Amino acid sequence: MKSSTFFTLCSLFISIFSIAQTSTELFETESHNSANFTDNGVIFNIISYSSTFDIQANYPNTGWGGSANDNRYIDNSSSAAASASFGIRTTSNLFKANRFWLFLSNTSLNQNVVGTVTVTGKLSGVTKFTQTKTTGFVTSLGSTNGYTLIDLTNLNGQNYSGIVIDELQVTLGGAYTYAGLDAFTWVKDTGIVLATNNDTKAIKNKLSIYPNPTRGDFSIQASESSNAELYDLSGKLIKSMSVQKGSNAENISELPNGTYLLKVNSETQKIIKH
């Protein structure tokens, strides 16, 4: 009972001090052909699974910022192909995807073709949601410069905007071989995914930190080798560590006293330095 109450209090504490910030990336300051972008202090990598996706900046006024044309976006103009697929992934902060706009066509930029778009959210490589959109696509330039809104608050009647992920993957199907993505709206999360009361035992078996609170020296007991990341309560990455299966000695004496969050894979625990 005490253990359950402790984790409940931790969850409430983290919820209070977590900072969720909504941001829309328009890519207007990003470099042409770049395979990453930075928004609200977070670096996102553009992962090309099939076809090559990167920042496109060669065709002014062919993007869509949600209310007007803009100049830069993610696309695969150099390698449009069937089943094209890419991901937007970050390793510094978890996030929630809200909405984005897609220009969809075949290789000849003909939008009046039949295709599908599958949107998948992942966390540490595990699929948290996936949904395929088959209708409702824009087929001409019209009022949105040819872009279709993909709204994760209501995608095929489901709301996925509250699910914490570290990667958003987009996969084309049917006759769609080209995609341009713009106006990516997302919510910055501090990387906090604490267990529910029912998961307390599993967390304790996989990851433990002692002593906690600590004056600087502590040990991480991990069930497998992995990377560990230490964040402050604003979600800023403070330190990265490599942990091995078993006991790992660490030290944070150089850091100010306070509360930090240690993330190992999809598990996050609070650590207090005093």
Automatic annotation (TrEMBL):
NCBIfam families: Por_Secre_tail. Keywords: Signal. Residues 1-20 form the signal peptide. It comes from the Bacteria. The keyword Signal applies. InterPro entries: Secre_tail. This is T9SS type A sorting domain-containing protein.
